[in-house]
Structure formats: C-alpha cells, structure tokens
Amino acid sequence: MKKRIAIVGATGAVGEEILNVLNELDFPVESILPLASAKSAGLDVEFRGKIYKVKELTENVFKENPVDIAFFSAGGSISEKYAKFAVEAGAVVIDNTSHFRMDSNVPLVVPECNPEDIKEWKKTGIIANPNCSTIQMVQVLKPLDDEFGLKRVDVSTYQAASGAGKEGMEELVAAMQSFFAFKLDEFKPQTFPYTLALNLIPQIDVFTENGYTKEELKMVNETQKILHKKLEVSATCVRVPVLRSHSEAITMHFEKDVDVKKAREILSKAPSVKVIDDPQNKQYPMPLFTSDTNETYVGRIRSDINHKNILHLWCVADQIRVGAATNAVRIAQKWLELN
Ligand code: A2P
C-alpha cells in the first residue's frame, strides 16, 4: 500500500536527498508533506512530477495533514520538540538527528546490520537513524565481526562539509572562492570553527571532559548499540575540505587471525558494500567518485605488518545518502516489510 510521507527539513540537504532516494528506490508514495521553518513556507517541492507546497512545521500540522511516515531531518532540538506530535497523529518517526539515538526504548538501525531491531519501534513510535560516520563503518564491521569476532576498532575520519548541512557546503565553496580572489585571510567562517578551505579541522561537535568530541563518542556508543556488543572503539574525527563523501581509515582487532583474501571476499558479498581494491592499478575509493551513490566503498584492505589478527582498510561513502537519506529510506522499507 502506498504511504503518506512527511519530510521535516524538506528544504535541507538531507531532506532533499530523501525525496531523490524515495524515488530511486521505488518507494510506494501516496503523497508528500514537505515541512520546514516559516521562512520556507509556500516554496514548491517536486516529487514524481507533482508539486507540493512546503508548510511550516507546527504542533498541529500532523493532525491537520495525517501521514504514515515522518522523516525528521531539521536538527535535534526540532526532533525533541515535534517528533511526539507526529507520533500522536499516528505516524512512525524516522529520526535523522542524534536526539533519540541512545534512548534505550528507541531502536537505532542500519538495515544491513540490525534490521530486527526495527520491531521495537512500537515502544515510542520512533526509529533513530545513526550518525553518518557510524553507518558506513558498521556496514563494514558487521560482516567481518560475524566471521572473525571483532574486539576493538580504531578509526580516523575525514568528514566532508556536507555533515554540517547546506550551510557547511556553501561555506566551503565561499572559502574556496575567497582563496582564488586572494582574500582567504579575510574570510570569516561561521559554520566551522576555522576556515575549511585548504585546511583540516580536528574537531567535529564540542569537546567532552575526556578529551574526545561528541562526534567521536557517537561513533563509540552507536556502534556498540547497533552491533549489540561492548566493543572497544576509539575515534578521531576530522573535518576535511571535501563537499559530500566521508572517508574513514579503519583498524580492526579480531579474536581470530584474519585471512585478507577471505576478508575481501566477505566484504564483496556484504550488502550495500562495494570493494574497489587494486592498488597496483591505483584503484581505491575516493570521495570524488562516490557522490550520489547508495553504496559504501572499501579498499586498501590489508593485514597489519605485525599482528595477523589486525586488519586495516579505507572506507568512503556519500554522507548525505548512505550516511543519512538512503539509510532512512531503507529503514522505512524494512518497517513496511515488518508491518
Ligand atoms: P529552512 O530551510 O526553512 O530553514 P540543512 O541541514 O541542510 O541546513 O537543513 C536544515 C533543514 O531544517 C532545513 O530544511 C530547514 O528549513 C529546517 N529547519 C531549520 N529550523 C527549522 C525550524 N525551526 N522548523 C522547521 N524546520 C526547520
């Protein structure tokens, strides 16, 4: 049966991409309710040849315009305040923000890893979509964990500007333009703590007392929740001057020794994962080639020089799609199957 869909944050980077992915994955859509702030009310949104007017998100909008599924992608404080109104009006909420992720009553789902957790949605009416860096990483960890028993993960991320939404991407472009106008020194960043053009910023979100940032701790806590395992995870998250694909250098420590050939074979069969790993011919994943795709790409798969139970790899995925919109739509597909 076709479903009525609300998109909260329909004018944002992720909201717009959810529409593209719903269409690409052939999701059975009856109608779209695009929601945003008052400033966007009245704008047109097109979906499958039909025009829908953006409405202002209010407490009553879901009562007045009932929907079956509400995707929330307008920031944690908006989800905190408004998700309950969507649930009260009968919708399942698929939330892209960090607000509900660690709530023990809310399932946190990557359909390739823990689809069965979706069944818990009835407790609150909400299903949480993990952090973008977590999603692409667990898609790779899960099949290797099943085979070799994962004990610890060390990851360094190279995160694109898109993680900060449209404003983040626009700020990177503006900073590049300032560079070519010989005015980079005068550039005043507002979204990122420093100018991102020609720079790397080893801070995403705020620092906590233990020296890790909130973004890094999200990768730790969310990975454990999704894999249902008290795994050791340590992350260093870095913002890089790339527009929209996140990259990650991942080191995995296993209980068993790992045969690299076997690991490569497992990953090439893993759902939503594509292996590009032919270093002699300069073949490895790069953000330049992964935008607008729904797969997580891995390469540089290699055994540790010193320990046979340690494996290293390089992993790249489109942050707006795999890290947000595609995962959210895949959750909706699984939810449909189960209901
Ligand atoms: P708007 O465009 O009207 O500000 P991004 O992550 O790309 O920056 O997008 C954020 C999304 O969240 C946009 O669609 C934005 O709408 C929406 N949004 C921001 N603040 C609110 C709010 N107070 N009420 C509803 N939507 C909001």
Automatic annotation (TrEMBL):
Keyword line: Amino-acid biosynthesis, Diaminopimelate biosynthesis, Lysine biosynthesis, Methionine biosynthesis, NADP, Oxidoreductase, Threonine biosynthesis
Catalytic reactions of this protein: L-aspartate 4-semialdehyde + phosphate + NADP(+) = 4-phospho-L-aspartate + NADPH + H(+)
GO molecular function: aspartate-semialdehyde dehydrogenase activity; NAD binding; NADP binding; protein dimerization activity
Residues that coordinate or bind phosphate: 101
Annotated InterPro entries: Asp-semialdehyde_DH_CS (IPR000319), Asp_semialdehyde_DH (IPR012080), Asp_semialdehyde_DH_beta (IPR005986), NAD(P)-bd_dom_sf (IPR036291), Semialdehyde_DH_NAD-bd (IPR000534), Semialdhyde_DH_dimer_dom (IPR012280)
Residues making up the signal peptide according to the UniProt record: none
A biological process from GO: diaminopimelate biosynthetic process
Residues reported in the UniProt entry to bind NADP(+): 11-14, 39-40, 162-163, 319
Residue numbers annotated as active site: 132 (acyl-thioester intermediate), 246 (proton acceptor)
Its EC number(s): 1.2.1.11
List of residues binding substrate: 159, 239
Role summary: Catalyzes the NADPH-dependent formation of L-aspartate-semialdehyde (L-ASA) by the reductive dephosphorylation of L-aspartyl-4-phosphate.
Family according to the record: Belongs to the aspartate-semialdehyde dehydrogenase family.
Assembly and binders: Homodimer.
Stated name of the protein: Aspartate-semialdehyde dehydrogenase
Provenance organism: Campylobacter sp. CCS1377
